[in-house]
Amino acid sequence: MDNISDLIKRAREAQAKAYAPYSNFRVGAVLVTKDGTTFLGSNVENSSYGLTVCAERIAVFKAVTSGEKEFAYLVISSSGMGYPYPCGACLQVLAEFSPELKIILVDEADNIKKYWLKELLPKAFLFNQ
Ligand SMILES: [Zn+2]
What we know:
With 129 residues, this protein is an alpha+beta fold. It has four helices and five strands. β3, α3 (88-97) and β4 (102-106) form a beta-alpha-beta unit.
Protein backbone atom coordinates (compact mmCIF):
# COMPACT_ATOMS: atom_id res chain seq x y z
CA MET A 1 0.00 0.00 0.00
CA ASP A 2 1.13 3.54 -0.69
CA ASN A 3 2.03 5.62 2.33
CA ILE A 4 -1.23 6.36 4.14
CA SER A 5 -0.42 10.05 4.37
CA ASP A 6 -0.01 10.15 0.56
CA LEU A 7 -3.37 8.43 0.11
CA ILE A 8 -5.00 10.88 2.54
CA LYS A 9 -3.51 13.77 0.57
CA ARG A 10 -4.94 12.36 -2.65
CA ALA A 11 -8.34 11.84 -1.01
CA ARG A 12 -8.29 15.47 0.08
CA GLU A 13 -7.44 16.51 -3.49
CA ALA A 14 -10.44 14.54 -4.75
CA GLN A 15 -12.56 16.01 -1.96
CA ALA A 16 -11.66 19.52 -3.16
CA LYS A 17 -13.12 18.66 -6.57
CA ALA A 18 -16.49 17.58 -5.17
CA TYR A 19 -19.54 19.23 -6.66
CA ALA A 20 -21.62 19.79 -3.53
CA PRO A 21 -23.43 23.15 -3.80
CA TYR A 22 -26.52 21.89 -1.95
CA SER A 23 -25.08 20.13 1.08
CA ASN A 24 -21.55 21.57 1.15
CA PHE A 25 -20.60 18.07 2.33
CA ARG A 26 -17.53 17.26 0.26
CA VAL A 27 -16.25 13.71 0.01
CA GLY A 28 -13.09 12.37 -1.59
CA ALA A 29 -12.25 8.75 -2.28
CA VAL A 30 -9.12 6.96 -3.44
CA LEU A 31 -9.59 3.41 -4.65
CA VAL A 32 -6.38 1.39 -4.84
CA THR A 33 -6.26 -1.71 -7.03
CA LYS A 34 -4.38 -4.84 -6.03
CA ASP A 35 -1.56 -3.80 -8.36
CA GLY A 36 -1.37 -0.31 -6.85
CA THR A 37 -3.20 1.76 -9.45
CA THR A 38 -5.33 4.50 -7.91
CA PHE A 39 -8.66 5.97 -8.98
CA LEU A 40 -10.09 9.13 -7.46
CA GLY A 41 -13.72 9.98 -6.87
CA SER A 42 -15.62 12.90 -5.42
CA ASN A 43 -19.31 13.32 -4.79
CA VAL A 44 -21.35 14.97 -7.54
CA GLU A 45 -24.66 16.45 -6.43
CA ASN A 46 -27.60 17.45 -8.60
CA SER A 47 -30.50 19.85 -8.16
CA SER A 48 -32.66 16.73 -8.47
CA TYR A 49 -31.19 15.35 -5.24
CA GLY A 50 -31.81 11.68 -6.00
CA LEU A 51 -29.41 11.87 -8.93
CA THR A 52 -26.45 12.66 -6.67
CA VAL A 53 -23.65 10.10 -6.85
CA CYS A 54 -21.26 9.37 -3.99
CA ALA A 55 -17.48 9.71 -4.30
CA GLU A 56 -16.97 6.00 -3.62
CA ARG A 57 -19.12 4.84 -6.53
CA ILE A 58 -17.56 7.34 -8.90
CA ALA A 59 -14.11 5.94 -8.03
CA VAL A 60 -15.37 2.37 -8.58
CA PHE A 61 -17.00 3.22 -11.90
CA LYS A 62 -13.88 5.01 -13.13
CA ALA A 63 -11.80 1.96 -12.21
CA VAL A 64 -14.15 -0.59 -13.77
CA THR A 65 -14.48 1.41 -16.97
CA SER A 66 -10.68 1.49 -17.09
CA GLY A 67 -10.56 -2.31 -16.94
CA GLU A 68 -9.82 -2.72 -13.21
CA LYS A 69 -11.97 -4.94 -11.02
CA GLU A 70 -9.77 -6.08 -8.12
CA PHE A 71 -9.34 -3.61 -5.32
CA ALA A 72 -7.27 -3.65 -2.14
CA TYR A 73 -7.99 -0.37 -0.34
CA LEU A 74 -10.45 2.49 -0.36
CA VAL A 75 -9.57 5.70 1.46
CA ILE A 76 -12.42 8.14 2.13
CA SER A 77 -12.20 11.70 3.46
CA SER A 78 -14.85 14.36 3.94
CA SER A 79 -15.35 17.97 4.89
CA GLY A 80 -16.82 17.26 8.30
CA MET A 81 -19.24 15.26 10.45
CA GLY A 82 -16.61 12.84 11.77
CA TYR A 83 -15.67 9.66 9.95
CA PRO A 84 -17.24 9.37 6.47
CA TYR A 85 -18.83 5.93 6.58
CA PRO A 86 -19.91 4.78 3.12
CA CYS A 87 -23.64 4.47 2.44
CA GLY A 88 -25.25 1.09 1.86
CA ALA A 89 -25.43 1.57 -1.90
CA CYS A 90 -21.68 2.17 -2.15
CA LEU A 91 -20.91 -0.79 0.10
CA GLN A 92 -23.03 -3.02 -2.14
CA VAL A 93 -21.26 -1.79 -5.29
CA LEU A 94 -17.86 -2.33 -3.66
CA ALA A 95 -18.85 -5.86 -2.56
CA GLU A 96 -19.60 -6.75 -6.19
CA PHE A 97 -15.91 -6.50 -7.02
CA SER A 98 -13.88 -6.88 -3.84
CA PRO A 99 -15.53 -8.48 -0.81
CA GLU A 100 -12.12 -8.48 0.91
CA LEU A 101 -11.64 -4.72 0.53
CA LYS A 102 -10.04 -2.70 3.33
CA ILE A 103 -11.79 0.64 3.93
CA ILE A 104 -9.91 3.50 5.60
CA LEU A 105 -11.97 6.43 6.89
CA VAL A 106 -10.34 9.81 7.54
CA ASP A 107 -11.89 12.45 9.78
CA GLU A 108 -11.35 16.22 9.56
CA ALA A 109 -8.19 16.00 11.71
CA ASP A 110 -6.71 13.14 9.59
CA ASN A 111 -7.41 10.55 12.26
CA ILE A 112 -8.18 7.19 10.65
CA LYS A 113 -10.36 4.15 11.26
CA LYS A 114 -9.91 0.92 9.32
CA TYR A 115 -12.55 -1.65 8.53
CA TRP A 116 -12.96 -4.66 6.31
CA LEU A 117 -15.84 -4.21 3.88
CA LYS A 118 -17.44 -7.31 5.43
CA GLU A 119 -17.54 -5.56 8.80
CA LEU A 120 -19.58 -2.69 7.35
CA LEU A 121 -21.75 -4.89 5.08
CA PRO A 122 -21.69 -8.43 6.47
CA LYS A 123 -24.47 -9.79 4.26
CA ALA A 124 -24.00 -8.24 0.82
CA PHE A 125 -26.29 -9.38 -1.96
CA LEU A 126 -24.13 -11.36 -4.38
CA PHE A 127 -25.85 -13.11 -7.27
CA ASN A 128 -25.37 -16.91 -7.37
CA GLN A 129 -24.19 -17.14 -3.76
ZN1 LIG B 1 -22.53 6.17 -1.08
